[in-house]
């Protein structure tokens, strides 16, 4: 299966969303109850539109997760459990990156190094191989690639254009030049253009500026991005510079992208530590966009509503569903980071 491979955009038809259930042996242990509520809300939202595959560490975790989801009246006919070992639940970065071909699929299995060796990741690095050997996927093969790359670091428009950040890729591969990295990305991901952002970051983000916290394709000619309009905020200069970079980008036919700036969430802190709240970390599913909501106060919930309005404009015809994600950013990620879409026909 080597002919006509392509990297589909997230808004294309999907067969399922892949997640991993948090448990006491993951980094969520200290606040497990809070984060479980987010996972329940997430699964409830996904199953309104399509199936969800839930990785579980063992029979006990599966039984517990099943009971919690069933008690929340989740459509269990759309939930499938997969027993497999994992270090943590950030499946955007440890899960499979799927290419679609005329006669099947290719699962790209890049190295996962715990975001440059920051965390233990040996089990997560074997996740794609483990899922593949369990025959979870239909009509597919697996390509092992000795190159550190996380799914959250890349965005595709489904038509051969990749969007990424130089900060992240350079941090993972400091000995490689831009041309060498770009050539590899084009070859492995079947892309013919790479658009690089030099600016943009979030405090509390330990991914070294993953693109999925900053800017996302909404169509081949549209980009949604996290803006900051508060001159007194520490992010203002950097995100304004990123917005200028996005304005300078051009589509394949030489036109400026249609840009959709997301409102800046009010600062969320934990013991004085700024957390990486971003509305750009949304998840596209069949017929909907699931967006992270961070509001605890009326003012914060108002900003959530403003973000929902921007996404509704960027994704006409899709329902916008808010998922409470404040517990997730305690561990420096959000909604998109804990999920991985699987293209239609793969499961």
Automatic annotation (TrEMBL):
Key words of the record: Hydrolase
SUPFAM superfamilies found in the cross-reference section: Pentein (SSF55909)
Keyword Hydrolase: yes
GO biological process terms on file: putrescine biosynthetic process
Lineage summary: Bacteria, Pseudomonadati, Pseudomonadota, Gammaproteobacteria, Lysobacterales
Keyword Protein biosynthesis carried by entry: no
Annotated InterPro entries: Peptidyl-Arg-deiminase_porph
GO MF annotations, alphabetized: agmatine deiminase activity; protein-arginine deiminase activity
Recorded superkingdom: Bacteria
Origin species: Lysobacter concretionis Ko07 = DSM 16239
Name of this protein: Agmatine deiminase
